[in-house]
Amino acid sequence: MTDKLKYMYIHKSIYKDKPLQLARSAAVELLQLALDVDDVVDVLEFGKPVRRRKEGVVEKWLVHGKHIYNVVVVDVGNAWRVVHVGRFTKTKKKMRLMHEG
User: Fold this and answer.
1) How many percent of the chain have pLDDT more than 90?
2) Which fold has domain 7-100?
3) I need a surface site. Which of 15, 19, 34, 67 has the fewest CB within 10 A?
């Protein structure tokens, strides 16, 4: 990947009838977590929204084992731009936040 490349289009992965577009930082996060774009789609489809975000921004969390995976995407018109992918340890406080949201 070059420094001039900011986004990588993923045409085969669709969420709400729009393709996903990975921000470079999100692509690095995916590599660090050993995930792929299909995992991002699973979090978006089966995850739970936890907190209110401004219009056009979606954040979802999905519990898997002892971890919670979170994904943040932004609607950019013709696609969803994945801006963050994260993983953290499941705790009682975070589980409570998931059930309140």
Assistant:
1) 53
2) YaeB-like fold (3.30.2310)
3) 34
